[in-house]
Design a protein that fits this description.
Elements lengths: L2 H4 L4 E5 L12 H13 L4 E3 L12 H15 L13 H14 L4 E3 L9 H12 L5 E5 L1 H4 L5 H9 L5 E4 L5 H9 L4 E4 L5 H6 L4 E4 L6 H12 L3 H15 L7 H11 L16 H16 L4
Helix pairs in contact: 2-3, 3-4, 4-5, 7-8, 10-11, 11-13, 12-13
């Protein structure tokens, strides 16, 4: 068994955008095709039901079927569903659903209905860990108001509740502190626009947004970065950064879906309350995407 089989969250795992029909129903056939296309283009796996997959506005039936669809097409070891929910019991049930569907790991935000304290965070991860499937923490203090600081992550890892963390704080300095406090905890790049910095800091994977539109070029960027091929990595990073930075903006779902449309994939609309992009936002993203296409990155 390879190391990545033991640690299926390593490599490039795409937080998948979810194709919707014109009447905003989930298009499971298109989603299946999208998952297969990402793997064919060098990605290692997918993360359904993350915020990029609009999980907050899915029915429980839709949410479960999205996971099952991904597993049926690319195999469970390549699928790491998001299992975030307001209550720990509900997150645990989603982890159990992922486990029963054959997934290799799950990704879990801290409690995010309110600004949870450390004891609540520990209890939340302890509860979900009972599902018996490896848990990757997701630190997104910008959106959740709960910051999984390195000391807290080390505690969660020491208790056996988490195996890795998707780091979205944007603070690259934390990578080095984490490596000292919890050397066995895998650091995953959580925001596309700090990819190079976190790769150089020892990241073992990338939970990625923009590969939804440009998988081959972004995968090449990731491997160049982790392999220390700085000439290639810097060139690609500079070319792609005008797009990658949208992964950290409020409109990241709409931005990535628009880029998908421009390169000939199915991005399409989002469910409310997400609004369409403003004309100037759309123009900026369209221009950056077309530039990437012209540079041979699509």
């Amino acid at each position: 068994m390879t190391l990545s089989a033991h640690r299926p969250w390593r490599g490039v795992l795409v937080a998948t955008a979810l194709p919707l029909t014109d009447d905003l129903c989930v298009d499971h056939d298109k989603y299946a095709e999208h998952c297969a296309w990402l793997i064919d283009n060098g990605c290692d796996g997918v993360v359904p039901n993350g915020s990029l997959g609009e999980y907050q506005v899915l029915t429980p039936e839709e949410r479960a079927k999205v996971v099952e669809t991904a597993v049926s097409v690319i195999g469970g070891s390549r699928v790491m569903p998001g299992v975030a929910a307001y209550g720990s019991a509900e997150s645990r049930r989603w982890a159990e659903q992922a486990r029963d569907a054959g997934c290799g790991s799950v990704m879990l935000l801290p409690p995010n209905a309110y600004r949870a304290d450390e004891r609540s965070v520990l209890a939340h991860y302890a509860e979900v860990a009972k599902a018996g499937i490896p848990v990757v923490a997701y630190n997104n203090p910008i959106d959740t108001k709960v910051d999984l600081v390195p000391e807290l992550l080390a505690k969660l890892h020491g208790e056996g509740f988490i195996q890795a963390v998707k780091e979205f704080s944007g603070d690259v300095r934390r990578a080095y502190q984490l490596a000292e406090l919890a050397p066995e905890l895998d650091l995953l790049i959580g925001a596309d626009d700090v990819l190079l910095e976190l790769a150089l800091a020892g990241a073992k994977g990338w939970v990625a947004g923009y590969p939804n539109a440009l998988p081959a070029a972004t995968v090449e960027l990731y491997h160049a970065a982790v392999d220390g091929d700085l000439a290639t990595a810097r060139r690609l990073y500079e070319q792609l950064h005008p797009l990658l930075r949208w992964d950290s903006k409020v409109e990241f779902v709409q931005a990535i879906k628009l880029s998908m449309d421009i390169v000939g994939r199915h991005g399409g609309r989002c469910r409310p309350p997400r609004m369409p992009l403003l004309p100037e936002q759309e123009a900026t993203i369209r221009s950056a995407t077309e530039k990437a296409v012209a540079a041979g990155l699509a």
